[in-house]
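ENTRY TYPE: paired fold submission
RECORD: A
CONTENT: sequence, then structure tokens
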Amino acid sequence: MSTQAKASPAIRRDFERVSPELVERASRFQAAILADVVGRRGTLNGRVQGLSPSMKVAGPALTVEVRPGDNLMFHVALAIAKPGDVIVIDAKGDQTAAMCGEIMATQAQASGIAGFVIDAAVRDSHELANGSFPVFAAGTNPCGPTKALGGLVNWPASVAGVAVNPGDLIVGDADGVVVIPREDVPAILELAQKKLDSETKRIAAIKAGDLRPGWLEGELRKAGVLAEGEVL
């Protein structure tokens, strides 16, 4: 029997990732721009934040579901992840124990992993926040995890209120984390560029003295705040 045939069905090793070229393009945009054009959805609960505001991450999701307070399957993900992957941990928002610390982040960085997105606590936060490896987490706790319970690797997951499939695009920055379904990425990036161009133009107009957005009165009439023909 082959090694692959013996592998646990809980661990999926192969999945289609968003391409490196698309990841590089996506990394140029703010998470906020991408969230707007993906339909103002797909953003993780705001509890998941970078340990430093300067942290940024972009890459295909490698998903992990763990039991709260246990990081056994997180170690599995570290062992099988490919360079550029973002390890995304569904740990139910638990903050009673840390899912990882400096040692696991150091291992991940040496392996070429792009970053961690963890819906749970982490520790060694001072070291991580002052390091160069992106870690997004729901909080901190000095208590270490157990390593005794099974879970799932590279199965569909629900992370901080958002569905995440293996290979989906993850982008995180100072505002938080957005998830874009892998098959939608090319179209979303086209829309993101148009949105960025529009916002750049609007900011220039504001600086030139055009302070009121042109859409405001029309939307106020639709909402019944202004009567037809009435002006603000």
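RECORD: B
CONTENT: sequence, then structure tokens
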Amino acid sequence: MTVTSAAAPSRELPHPALAEIRLEGVLHALSDPVRLRIVSELASDGGELACSHFDLPVTKSTSTHHFRVLRESGVVRQVYRGTAKLSALRREALDDLFPGLLDALLDAADRQALRLGE
């Protein structure tokens, strides 16, 4: 007998529409080192990562705040799958709105980390 389980239901959180994403909101979201680190890891992975995947130097409530800022600015998309909250970079949307911005910022962050020995 084969037992099949239904896929965990997903529930998406509210996100800004493409027309609502503003450059100053994106820049604000990426101006924090913790949020920039999250975005860098998401960009490297290219897929969805659970919030618990990230080893951040902040409390759980502060981590939740950082993910909310990224979501509300339009930088990431978040969805619940079962009890896990998954985050993915909205790369296509950001590249359409601000061509080259994300790559330039991530490259600059990498160069700074090398320069500072991080």
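NOTES ON RECORD B: Residues 1-5 have pLDDT under 50 and may be disordered. Helices lie at 23-30, 33-45, 60-73, 91-97, 101-116.
STATUS: closed
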